[in-house]
Amino acid sequence: MDEKKFAKIEQQLSPKTPLGLNIVKAFLTGGTICLIGQFIAMFYMTFFDFTERTASNPTVATMVFLAMVLTGLGQYKKIAQFGGAGAAVPITGFSNAVVSASIEHKSEGYVLGVGGNMFKLAGSVILFGVVSAFTVALIKTILVKFGVVSW
Predict the structure, then answer these.
(1) Which residue range forms the structural domain that includes residue 82?
(2) pTM, 2 dp
(3) 137 and 75 share a domain?
(4) What is the mean pLDDT of residues 6-26?
């Protein structure tokens, strides 16, 4: 059987992906995660006298912590299975990736297993973020130095 026939048969036998339903689930899941983050930020602004700007750091830390706990309890996987890409909201998805890799290699020990493999999945994200931040800061510094923009 050649590749074209195989691809045609595979396409006929494969179940159709419910694209519209997946989009709605991702939107609701991601929106719910962001809504929880907004409630946490409002909590910090209301009860701890943070400003909108200063509430962001404890909010991020709280969201990372919650995603870590949910991943450790096996609940974030269920959320991700339901919401698909909606569960990959940057902060919680990143936290889930780091903790999942750690849990997966726990049997190899805490130093070589957990510590050595913690950033296996997330390492490229960290590297890209650091390089991007450095590049943007360098461009901004050059533009400010030559008077093109003033910040």
Answers:
(1) 18-120
(2) 0.69
(3) no
(4) 88
